[in-house]
Amino acid sequence: QVQLVESGGGLVQPGGSLRLSCVASGFTFSGYTMNWYRQAPGKERELVASIAPVVGNANYADSVKGRFTISRDNAKKVLYLQMNSLKPEDTAVYYCSVQLALRRSWGQGTQVTVST
Questions:
Q1: C-alpha to C-alpha distance for 91 and 75, rounded to whole angstroms
Q2: Main-chain phi, psi angles of 38, to 5 degrees
Q3: How far apart are CA 98 and CA 104, in angstroms?
Q4: Would strands 110-114 and 10-12 be described as parallel, antiparallel, or unpaired?
Q5: Which residues contact 54 (CB under 8 A, 6 or more apart)?
Q6: 73-105 b/e with 16+ CB inside 10 Å = b?
Q7: How many Cβ atoms are within 10 Å of 5's Cβ, its own excluded?
Q8: Could you report the per-residue pLDDT of 35-86, keeping only the tens digit for each?
């Protein structure tokens, strides 16, 4: 059974940093592209960043390029999202996700709030 468990969210001031983690189990983590999505209140869920199974091949939404870094530890089966220079518009629930065969699996999400 696929499980994705996010952590690391919280309240941070504009300009601050957070690192999100996602612990994966139930599938061969090293064999799949992993993704971070986010959903702000009243908005659709959007793709923030993706990282291929081969470390180093990452893609980002234009809104986070240069500020966020996605990484993975295949040995520990953990996905990370380092978020720097946070802005109020980054406020959202952040989800870890993986597409396996015909089904996309999601974690429960972790809330990130950027506010004074």
A1: 30
A2: -145, 155
A3: 6
A4: parallel
A5: none
A6: ebeebbbbbebeebeeebbbbbbbbbeeeeeeb
A7: 14
A8: 999 999 999 999 999 999 976 699 999 999 999 999 999 999 999 999 999 9
C-alpha 81/C-alpha 49 separation (Å) is 8
Taking alpha carbons only, the member of 45, 18, 32, 42 closest to residue 98 is 32
3-state DSSP of the chain: CCEEEEECCEEECCCCCEEEEEEEECCCHHHCCEEEEEECCCCCCEEEEEECCCCCCEEECCCCCCCEEEEEECCCCEEEEEECCCCHHHCEEEEEEEEECCEEEECCCEEEEECC
Query: Would you say how long the chain is, in residues?
Result: 116
* Residue type for position 87: K
